[in-house]
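Example 465.
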Amino acid sequence: MRSSILSLAESKIREVANAAMGRPYVLAFWFGESDEVTPEFICQAAIDSLQQGETFYAHNLGLPELRQAIANKMSHRHGHGGNFIDMNRIAVTPGGVNALMMAVQAIVDPGDRVVAVTPVWPNLTAQALIMGAQLTTVALKPINGAWQLDLQQLIDAITPATRLLIVNAPNNPTGWTLTPDEQKIILAHCRTTDTWILDDEVYESLYYEPTFNHCAPSFLDVAQTQDPLVVVHSFSKSYLMTGWRLGWMVMPADMTDSIGKLIEFNTSCASVFTQRAGIMALQRESEVTPRVVKHLQTCRDILVGALSPLPQVQVASPRGGMYAFSRLHGAGDDPLVIAKRLVQEAGLGLAPGNVFAPDAQGWLRWCFATKDVSRLGQGVGRLQQWLQKGFCRNKDSQFFRNAIGSVWHRKNTLLVVGKILQNSLLRQNPLNPTRIVQFCRINHGRRSKIRRDHRVYPKFHLKCL
Ligand SMILES: Cc1ncc(COP(=O)(O)O)c(C=O)c1O
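Predicted structure in complex with pyridoxal-5'-phosphate:
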């Protein structure tokens, strides 16, 4: 096995999710997808395609109808200022991640220097490492509540030896975006150093600031057709289609044939029925994306509004994307340890920040894309309780794991921990006729029984409090 593959880090988000196995009460905000299913009319387009027998291989670069529909959309948004986007600059791929991988395969040789702006979705840096690149990172900084790029630092990092610059804006996990002026400066510099730009713009439509074309600033707005620029997009986020695996890339026209060859050797094509669903999604975009964006903005405001007053939490309101990247002060540094403890002790599932940048110590990512917005308030409530308990450090971790945010249920006994849980139990739940309820108290990290209650209670729901 190649050493670059052996040295790839395993997914830490998955590690946290594994810690939640057997804990159905955990409120999970770790994965980057909405919990809302794809609109019915998009699903129906795929069903119709299958029923009509479209079960065969397709053109490497995608169905011409879909490529044309994408070119129309992209031209409408970005085709002003001399950057004409026609269908011979478009390749359809099974997912945005595959488009990113092929762009890196097409551009990067082993040993090439690659610069990436971090924190960033880890697949982007892993792909360069898989190709044997030498990776340098330039870190965004949270300044006055917003993530910012030191533009000069980035420009200094891109030299004539730099083959590729990788940017993701709007950014996962911070929501950071580039301004058009920054894009112009970066592009002008990359022209002089002969450096390609790979911009992952899959969150382009999920942007909450007003702009003339109703999306985040794009490198396509400032580039010319022949610039060394590849922009990657996806149906996943703005059309609620994560499981469909459909994305696309926009590139200079003279690169398209080479990408067609790479598609042949990677996946051969995206499946036809998903492409038909993609065509439908674009045709009826106005029925999906604006609603998704409006809802996500509400989710963002609820989450950030609830997190901001907590004194131990540092959080900036993201301008785009569907994540809040927040820092917990005083809970230790290793985000993986914090994330696992939150799962076990608070019933809260967040992604550890060091997945996105090794130096993001103490940072955690919330994905706020949830249909039921009350989950966000519940999640922050659990975090707050956990913080108030002084992070529940206790040798008897089993006791806490099962008690915080729910009740511990064993041998017909319900253990209810702490004053808050005790109160909310009595307030929120009907009484139970069959079970013995035992009240306990946390006392300097030790559990001590304060009273045993043999009263008879009617129906008790063993649900999260
Ligand atoms: C920044 C970024 N790029 C690309 C993707 C992948 O998109 P797709 O589902 O189209 O592969 C993700 C998914 O979370 C992402 O966060």
